[in-house]
Structures are given as C-alpha cells and as structure tokens.
Amino acid sequence: MATLCFEAAYEDGVERLAADVEAAAGREHGWADRLSAGLGAGLEFLADDPPLAHLLLVESLAAARPARLEYELSLARLAEALRPPPAELPGGEVVSAETARLLAGGLASHVSGRVLAGEVERLREDHDLLLRYLLTPTSRPVERRSAERA
After folding, report:
1. Cβ-contact 112, 57 below 8 angstroms
2. What is the pTM of this model?
3. Would the CA dihedral through 77, 92, 140, 132 be positive or negative?
C-alpha cells in the first residue's frame, strides 16, 4: 500500500512539474529561450515545495523497483526535452540521445544535491549556471582528444 501511495505522489508531482515547465517554455520562441524559461519554472516549482522536491529527487532514488523505474522514465523524458530540434542548431547539428541523457542526469544530480543539503531555496540562484551547462553541447564543436595529447 505504501508503495502505491508513493508512486501516486511521485507521478502527480512529476506531472505538475512537467505542466509548469511546459507552460513556461511554450510562451517562448527559440529553443534556448524555451529551455531557459522551462528551467526557471522547474527550479521555481521545486524551490517552492521542498518536501515534494525531496520526494521527486531523493526518495525516488531509494524507492523500490517500480517507483525507481518511474524515476528513470522521468529522466528519459527530461533528456528528450533537452534535445534541441536540429533546425535550431547551426548546420543542422544533432545533440545525441546519449548526450541528452548525460545532461539530464547531471541536472538531476545537481538539483538533488541541493535538496539533500537542505539548500532547495538556492535552486533559483542556479538558473544561469545550469542553463550554461545545458547549452554547452550546442555552443561550440567538441574537439576529440588525440592519443598523442592524452
């Protein structure tokens, strides 16, 4: 029974968070502006409800298998949202699914670290730092390290 209650609370929290993020992002034009607005709305949502932030980003990691799978699905959903349309990148570049997954995991890790540290209210301050992080794959070409330089 407790697992069902946890799952219901988690799913409700994720859907409310997603609705806020999507509403904010939907008011903007251009992928970077949508990303910035959605990120800001998400950070505000979490900062405004520390117990829910704890449930979504901390307790879900320690949950039993079905609830943990919901967390993984949420990360996959976030990763997909972080992939810019190729038409909005120079030369039609593509941010790979793997890169987007790493971005989503890094974002979730940073935010959950703030929550664990009892610093959920500081999430609002992290907007610009996190936006720069999320835009990194689209801002400049990545140079591969050669074996000689390694």
Report:
1. yes
2. 0.85
3. negative
Ordered by start, the domain boundaries in the chain are 2-84+94-138
The rounded Cα 145 to chain-centroid distance in angstroms is 28
C-beta of residue 118 within 8 angstroms of C-beta of residue 85: no
Dihedral sign from CA coordinates of 11, 16, 52, 60: positive
Structure tokens at 19: 């609705």
Q: How far is CA 52 from the centre of its chain?
A: 16
- Distance, C-alpha 73 to centroid of its chain: 12
Which stretches of the chain score pLDDT less than 70? 1-2, 64-65, 67, 140-150
- Residue type at position 81: A
CA distance linking residue 7 with residue 67, whole number of Å: 6
pLDDT at 148: 46
CATH architecture of 2-84+94-138: Orthogonal Bundle (1.10)
CA gap 55, 45 in Å, rounded = 13
